[in-house]
Amino acid sequence: MSTVAKKIETGLDVDPMFPMPxxxxxxxxxxxxxxxxFLRGADRHSTKTxxxxxxxxxxxxxxxxxxxxxxxxxxxxxxxxxILSYFKFVWPSAMPRASLSFTQTWFNIRKRGGQxxxxxxxxxxxxxxxNVWGEDPIIFEPPKTSGLFGSIRFGYETSGFAPDxxxxxxxxxxxxxxxxxxxxxxxxxxxxxxxxxISMNTFPVGSMGDGDNLNSLMIGGVGIGENxxxxxxxxxxxxxxx
Length: 242
Hints:
With 242 residues, this protein is α+β, with helices and mostly antiparallel strands.
């Protein structure tokens, strides 16, 4: 939705007061056989389910960190750059004092007929989904804080100011970036090949706020940005190391 005012037929100006940023980008190439083979064969740290296989986050043994595997490096370099671009666009004055760090990385492989129930990503700031294969949509729900517009449903066809559930299809090789509090789900998978996605959560690191407003905060960690000029003790930038 555009951030500029829209003039409708009656001459009324309608402004998008609190637009929701959703970012999209594409890696610009086909997913390689090496990347697909790695994901298909990654059983050691995955949880088997009737609907497919899930690799749960990057905490635990070193080889459980999905982003640390060489087969995944190019994908996570791309995802880190895309997420940081989103961050800089939404908060243009945040850098270089603050950046983002990967906190969890995981993948889902689900068979045809599987689904993923509605959920958000708690204890996270910005989340992203990278599609490896499959053509089924992610369904986003409007935030409940939208008041009246968040509780009335007319159907998919809306102006964008009063959305119902919004389906978004991510092409293979594409990434979708969104605020972690947005509730989303995957309906019954119809693609015969099933669906494979790589998901990731991020959280701010560095310096936020200021002392004069009594809201200053310093969080250490490894950032996914490119700027080395950061406060002492905050972080060093190292793209996609988590």
